[in-house]
Write a structure and sequence with these properties.
Blueprint: H1 13-38, H2 43-64, H3 76-96, H4 102-109, H5 112-124, H6 130-147, H7 156-178, H8 184-206, H9 215-238, H10 241-248, H11 251-263, H12 269-285
Helix pairs in contact: 1-9, 1-10, 1-11, 2-8, 2-9, 3-7, 3-8, 4-7, 4-11, 4-12, 5-6, 5-7, 6-12, 8-9
Length: 299
Amino acid sequence: MQLAMTSLPRQSHLKAALWMAGWLAAMVTMAIAGRETVSRLSAFQVMELRAIIGFFLLMPLVLSSGGFRAMVTSHPWKHVWRNAVHYCAQYMWLVAVTLIPLAQVISIEFTMPMWVALLAVVTIGEKLNRWKVAAILLGLVGVWVIVRPDAGRIEIGQALSLASAVGFSISVILVKALTRTESVVRIIFWMLIIQGIIGVIPAIYVWQPVPSNLWGWIVLVAFCGTFSHYCMARAMTHADATIVVPMDFLRVPLTAIAGWLVYNEIIDSYTAAGAAMILAGNLLNLRKPGAGTRWLRQQ
């Protein structure tokens, strides 16, 4: 998900690309680290450790942004509702990466803009134009091609991945409201606090000793989960969404390559075709009505 910054530095495509490189590296690493940890520990425990470790990792940014006094919010319940939804979506995503190929998880995750568009119609009265309708249809067909329900059954990992995409989309809508008054650091700060509190009881219930060789992966989950959003936000301050958003599409082939190199996952033609449709739908969803070939970020 992408968060807006409160100040806008000078535009620089090179700086935007470097921040996006950080985002892409973090997200691909997160997928691998998530699988490595959740395949051996409960996702509840991993998420609790992520919140605790991430809180301390975030401290330098908190202190440089005015300290704890600057983290005070006038909208606590908006943070609570956003993070309750995000927590559930993150849990389903982490479980999904252990059940199906990484490329499938990320491809299905890229249906988020379609769900955001639909939710915006229902919640804030936005209108659907022909480009958004085409984008939604392409995305749905892409998911159908990947899942292939006519093959007999839908994998639980595919269902969880799709549900997490819907959950992340709801979170995006809620974050939109928060970014009007909250800084990126404050939003991440409360994400870690609230999700840490939400996860205490389920984590305690399933808690087990962490094998020493998993700590490195857990720290990676915490680091990538905390700072990936920050990288995306910084990229968006250095270049227009028309430049930044297409860079994120590299996450699909990069994750597929990582799955092949690390887990020997073979990408079948259905996943490749479905991913292409979903990404094409994303490009249509970025199109600004009545602006020819100009694009506008809809997330």
